[in-house]
Each structure stands twice: as C-alpha cells, then as structure tokens.
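User
Here is a favour to ask of a fellow structure person. I am asking you to supply a protein in sequence and structure-token form. Please set it down just below, with no commentary around it:

Assistant
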Amino acid sequence: MERGLLILVSGASGTGKGTVCKKILSDMPEIFYSISATTRQPRPGEVDGVEYFFITKEEFKTWIAEDKFLEYAEVYGNFYGTPLHKIEERLSRGENVLLEIDTQGALNVMKKVPDGIYIFLLPPSLEELKNRIKNRGTETPETLERRLNAAKAEIEIGKKYQYVVVNDTVDEAVKKIKAIISAELCKTSRNEKIFEDLIG
C-alpha cells in the first residue's frame, strides 16, 4: 500500500489558513486533519479537541520530554505542537493528512518528512493582510505592528516551500490546493504498483 501524503499549509498570521483548510476538508472529507496542541487560551467559539487540544505549559513540556510531537514551536509566548502518533497511524494506512502549521514548525517538519507536500499561503498584499488582522478586533496598535513585522519575516520563509498560493478568494485558493494534491497523487513515483500490475 502506498503511504499517504502529508500536506502542510502555512502562511503568515491573517492570511486565512484556517478558513482555507476548513474548506479543503469540507470538499475532501477523506483527508484527515491533524489537530495541534497549544498552550494559548481558546478564542471565542473554539472547542477543545476540535480547533486545538488546549493544554497547560506543564502538560506540553511533559509531551516534549516523551517525544510525542512531530514538531513544536513557541509563537508569541505560547507553545504549539503537532501530536505524532495520530499522523503516523494515518499515513501508514495510506490516508492523506493535512497539517496547518506556522513557518517555524513547518521548517522542522521539512527536515523530518522531506517527501511531504509544502504549500505556502500568501495574502494578495500587505495592506490587505493588515486589514484582515485589524478586522479581527483582537489587536492593539502595538501588537498589530508586531504581527505585521512577523508576517514579513514569515513570508520570506515561504520561499522554502514547494508551492505558493495567493489567497485572494478562499474558493480560488482551495481550487489551487486541490489541484496540487491531485497532481501529487498522480506522480509516477506514487503509482509504481499500477505499472507492475500492467507490465509485470
């Protein structure tokens, strides 16, 4: 059985990663979404075990010591990590797994899973990115400025990814990501068994 695809989507804060990933999962329910663990407080409407596993810093450090993460990183004073066992279980069964991870964590995953599919989501412009973050209503002028500076640094890291998708509209971005996944599944290297069955 062919091993499943590890599909990782990143982008700067405010590029709409969460919205895009939700739409992909809605359109492609066969893809398994890997939920991250975090030490940050839930935002309004977020549910433990749905958007994230919300755990304490002490619990997070225990998981690190027990090597339970594919990757983990500290972002804006909070820890985020990708639980390893669920992902490995799914990939080995030939299922495709979607991760939504920040750039810092993604660089670690790239080292561990070089054959993963790495997609970077870009905003149409920095002005649009600023508006999206402002519209959340959660930022002070100081934290907004800090997030924009961090976004520029993250966009620079985006050059290390295999694919880039501009999130002008969610539907268009999702369409492009689905096309990337389809193309990857059609690669000759992933379909050797078909050749063997046909020509021996």
